[in-house]
Amino acid sequence: MVDWDKRYAEADASMFGRAPNNYVVQTLARPDFAARSALCLADGAGRNGRYLAQAGLAVTGVDLSRVGTDLAIAQDDAAGVTVERVTADLADWQPPADQRWDAAFLIYLHCERTVRRRAVELAARHLASGGWFVAEGFAVDDGTGPRMGPPDPDLRYAIADFDHWLAGFELIEAFSGIIRLDEGAKHQGLAPVVRYAARKP
């Protein structure tokens, strides 16, 4: 498993940039997206949770790395926003049973499939009725296009994964293709990605 504390200690918040992910920005700009609270899973140094908080949402950010979380808190403070930050492993993290969010964002969580599935299904259970689930991650590599992303295919996404894990949700968008990433030092250039958005009934 990647030592994310070591990575953040060596590269700090510049690893994936300080600006929010474009898909998060696009989702927030949709006229049919009216969330007032959000759960950001694998929020790292906090760029996406902080952006949502600056837009007025009550945000909970969860990440495995204590170093990444500390960076996120420092930047939240510098930006004058408040985000509930939790350092926890998504393999076993459990929010309060009655906790509900209007949206859940899963942006570039790349770990073993069992943990990703648990994270998605956990988010789904803790969404309010009509809540949005939004994800972007590196797609399964078919060997014909750009190769950015983890070499282990078990760490990549397919639309069918989300269709299965979010059965019963109303599909908003499902995209698998090539986009150009410009997110810090680690996400630069053309990349195969999956983007997925769905709404809880």
Record keyword descriptors for this entry.
201 residues, alpha/beta, 7-stranded mixed beta sheet, 6 helices, 7 strands, 29% helix, 30% strand, globular
Describe this structure in words.
This protein has 201 residues and is an alpha/beta fold. Helices cover 29% and strands 30% of the residues. It is built from 6 helices and 7 strands; from the N terminus they run H-H-E-H-E-H-E-E-H-E-H-E-E. It has helices at 4-11, 22-29, 47-54, 66-79, 113-125, 159-165; strands spanning 37-41, 58-63, 84-87, 101-107, 127-138, 170-183, 187-199. A 7-stranded mixed sheet has the order 3-2-1-4-5-7-6. The longest helix has 14 residues, at 66-79. The protein starts with a helix and ends with a strand. The model has no long low-confidence stretch (mean pLDDT 91).
